[in-house]
């Protein structure tokens, strides 16, 4: 049995609910298509949106718990003071990329709102879909920063296993 604490963060809930919704929408569409030879019109548009939501929310959870894929060869062979510099450089690279994503995502959402553009499938306002991009990119920055603080203090999460 696992001894790690449960991940009851908003991002974990959002990712879980998105995955459940994708499964239910897809299952419902398959059943309806099999029974009636027709399909729901909204399934693809909502499924793509929920998949993006799931990806970014899951990335925030992974960022908080130091579970992102990275090359750790350098980390294993550095002394502690140099290791802290690497942690800060990793954090800085992530913050730059996510900051740019957040900035341009917010600009895109604002433009979609101002232009009143509609989605091609259902005709819903596009900004509803796009507004989640800067919000979740900012959430990843916050979780990455929390992870950096933990790593600089020497508090690695329990579930991270580093093999020698």
From TrEMBL:
Record Pfam families: DctQ
Q: What is its main location?
A: membrane
Where would you find this protein in the cell?
Cell inner membrane
State if Transmembrane helix is listed as a keyword.
yes
Q: Which positions are tagged coiled coil?
A: none
Q: Which residues form the Tripartite ATP-independent periplasmic transporters DctQ component domain?
A: 22-153
Provide this UniProt record's keywords sorted from A to Z.
Cell inner membrane, Cell membrane, Membrane, Transmembrane, Transmembrane helix, Transport
Tell me the InterPro entries matching this sequence: DctQ, TRAP_DctQ
Would you identify the family this protein belongs to, as annotated?
Answer: Belongs to the TRAP transporter small permease family.
Q: How does it assemble?
A: The complex comprises the extracytoplasmic solute receptor protein and the two transmembrane proteins.
Q: What is this protein called?
A: TRAP transporter small permease protein
Query: Which species is this record about?
Result: Marinobacterium iners DSM 11526
